[in-house]
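Bit of a strange request maybe. I'm writing a small parser for structure token strings and I need a real example to test against, not something I typed by hand. Could someone generate the tokens for this chain?
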Amino acid sequence: MTKVYYSGYHNDVVSFVIYEGRVQTEVRQKPVKEALEKINSILKFHGGMTEFGIAISKSMEILLETPDKYDMKFLFLSDGDSNTGNPEIERLGRELRPKV
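Reply from user aminoacidic:
Good idea to test on real output. This should exercise your parser:
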């Protein structure tokens, strides 16, 4: 089990997109402390059926909805590899470069 810790600003918000062969948004623009309590209860790493494309697309959707008052960052973690994701990450870079 992996546990995520955070000691930054209390006003920060985060979103977590969990993916394998499907994608689900477990946390969407929640304060970090609240988000970590939820994500630490469900985060489990295991290999197989990894699809980067759907996760990157969902992440971009969330980033585009994020208010401009937040300094956005995109962090992508995986425990495997994928044959998808290149067009999606290129699109994310083109569309969000000024913001991320």
